[in-house]
Amino acid sequence: MKHKDRYDDEYVLDLSLKIHSVMPGFDKDAFSNGLIGRLDDKELFARLDIIVDAMEKSMGIDYSKNIQVFFNMLGPELTQPEGMFTSGWWLWPVGRYVERHGNEDWKLSLPFLKELTKRFTGEYAIRPLLKEHPEEVMDELIAWTKDENVHVRRLASEGVRIRLPWAEKLTVALDELERYAVILTNLKDDPERFVQKSVGNNLNDLFKESPEKAKRIIEQWEKTKESKAREWIVKHGMRNQK
């Protein structure tokens, strides 16, 4: 099944029940009736945006209230590195909502995204926060590199990628290189391949923009004893280098 085909009429009805279960005043019928039959001919992101439009209309404009609703409907955490698109996919419109509105209260958005990424992913929703508040958000991501949850550590890396697929280019890595290097350095020996791949992809993106900056980070790493994880990360990051 293609990603877009998950977000159909059945999904709309299920989502309306999930929201209503933690927001009793939510008009689930109005929400559903406004979406039923409107998604089938749309591509993935158009479907997500139409659903978010309906959320805005039916849930109101109180961002902090809506975030609390989303907190309460997240459900159990993923137990493995894998699973965000097989188990947590239903949360994508929630992430899309935060991507659109997160800067209305970025300090509230960050802890929510930390919880969201344990079920789905926050890599898209965190990018507007990084764009508007690069220093403060990157300082938080540096702390996340030490988190025991693999999804939180991975978000610390994946969110700052320059060329994240399906997302606009983000140059915070270049503008805040010192903080960016700390994020990657803290994760350079991470035991999980899920995180290693993200760090390697960061290096690969950086090589495309500024090879000298990428080489500088790797040279710093070479001053300490190499691990198997770091060896794999560097190889993955340099995979397009001749």
Set down the secondary structure blueprint.
Blueprint: H1 9-22, H2 28-33, H3 44-59, H4 63-72, H5 92-101, H6 106-116, H7 126-132, H8 134-144, H9 150-158, H10 172-175, H11 177-186, H12 193-209, H13 211-221, H14 228-237
Pairing-aware structural class of the strands and helices?
Answer: mainly alpha
Number of strands: 0
Give the topology string: H per helix, E per strand: HHHHHHHHHHHHHH
Strand content: under 5%
Runs with pLDDT <50, length 5+? none
- Tally of alpha and pi helices: 14
**Helical residue percent band:** 55-70%
Largest sheet: none
Under the CATH scheme, which architecture would be assigned?
Alpha Horseshoe
CATH class: Mainly Alpha
Mind telling me the CATH superfamily name?
ARM repeat domains
Average pLDDT: 96
Shape descriptor: elongated
**CATH overall fold name:** Serine Threonine Protein Phosphatase 5, Tetratricopeptide repeat
Instruction: Tell me which oligomeric state these chains represent.
Output: single chain
Radius of gyration: 19 Å
Distance between the termini: 37 Å
Q: How many structural domains? A: 1
Folded structure, characterized:
The protein is mostly helical. The chain has a single domain (61-237), classed as Serine Threonine Protein Phosphatase 5, Tetratricopeptide repeat, CATH 1.25.40.290. The protein has helices spanning 9-22, 28-33, 44-59, 63-72, 92-101, 106-116, 126-132, 134-144, 150-158, 172-175, 177-186, 193-209, 211-221, 228-237. The protein is elongated and about 60 Å long. It starts with 8 loop residues before the first helix and ends in a 5-residue tail after the last helix. The model has no long low-confidence stretch (mean pLDDT 96).
